[in-house]
Protein 1
Amino acid sequence: MTRLPRTWFSAGSTGAYRVRAIKPVTGEGLPPARRVHVGARPENPGVAWTLCGVVSHARYTESREKEALGLVQPPLGRPEATMAVLIPMSKSARWWDLAQDERRAIFETSSRHIEIGRRYLPAVARRLYHARELGEPFDFLTWFEFAPDQERSFDELLASLRRTEEWSYVEREVEVRLER
Ligand code: HEM
């Protein structure tokens, strides 16, 4: 159990984000909903689904990578970044059975997750939530914000990451496209 504050994503009929599409990428999808509320409490009359996660410490980022990202990563909530994408994901038991050094080798040495992602900054703002330890249905909730004219480029980023060795360990992934 964790003492970290939870962030809740409640999908239903109210909330600041309008659902544009919910697309199952790998494994089971999520039920349809009209809007998503993001906040410190679950809420939504007529809730379709609720997910929560916590912002936790970095596992794989090395100091020089952290520094390089720090120079270019934008904050969340920029007024022009009206598009948001929530991507809940889970990795397989095969991934979780690996040792830390093996996971880092797949994540960056082989898959270049940070190197690929960094090319899309500062256009994309992001936040990673951990949910596995909370007993949630997904291991991670990933959140992205960008301006409407950056959507094609964001799609290209998704395609690049999904071709990596890291993604061969992804057993469930759902794309929830939102607009503020
Ligand atoms: C926008 C550019 C991106 C950047 C700069 C980026 C950067 C990072 C970094 C630095 C980490 C490591 C956190 C740690 O040390 O624990 C990470 C983890 C992660 N990222 Fe990305 N990322 C990007 C895009 C994406 C996208 C588009 C997805 C999903 C489709 C994604 C999914 C994840 C997941 C699930 C993790 C956790 C991996 C694990 O702990 O096994 N990232 N990302």
Protein 2
Amino acid sequence: VSDKVPVILDTDIGSDIDDAVCLAYLLRQPKCELLGVTTVSGKVLERAALADAVCKAAGRRDIPIHAGCSHGINLGEVQPNVPQASVLPRFEHRAPSEFKVGTAVEFLREQINRRPGEITLLAIGPMTNLGVLFTLDPDIPKKLKSLVLMCGVFTSTIPYCAKEWNAICDPVATAITYRAPAKPHLSIGLDVTMKCQLPSAECIKKFNDIGGPLKVVAAMTEVWAKGGHLVTFHDPLAAAVIFKPDICKWEDGKVDVELKSDRAAGMTHWDRRSEDKPHKIAVEVNAEAFFNEYFAVTGGK
Ligand SMILES: [Ca+2]
């Protein structure tokens, strides 16, 4: 019996840089059986091609990649640009035209049905693919081994700092995802991920030194760094806790997602005193332990 964890990654790779940083980790994590990658939000075909470039640089030619929903359920196309796709000509990859929009949801459904109780679904983009999947087939969440999200913000007490990008990109899908009866239902929020940052220049150097899939990620980071001096490891933290849950401290509670207000739609409200506690929320992170894990796994040490 394999001790590997079967994982499917749902990602908006190509916007912020951390999705690519996360994918490289999963490809190098010996305990991860990466069953597939699904893309979401905006140019999903370009995102699929980028995911393929990172996989191929890791020597993994066999990983299924499926493009999902480009538009959110009620807000349309909120992330229309994928500037990091400019690195594609430098690396081997399947062309965007080799993927088909909208195959991701059926792929997820089929994989999860094939291995009920076994698969961890890790979602690190807007929740649209999950919202559509869980609406199409409401039994799917119960068939997951676990659902892990980089989504929301939970321990911040400043009201208008209570919005997180993935959650607000598609508030309806976020609400559907938090109502989904997955067990465990884990969230890594912005308040925790913001503690895991490194300067962009340091990342580019480290990624180039390590090589493999991080070679492509280094090139993507160069494009991304024009807009940001710091890389925040939001998504890789959500991946790392699948294998090392003790990197974070967790609390149980109940998350509700704001839908009625236009200005605050997608805000995650976390009630730790709720009687019903369907959600596990990361409330603290050991950033040093996280970075040790990240670079030990990707650097092969
Ligand atoms: Ca992301």
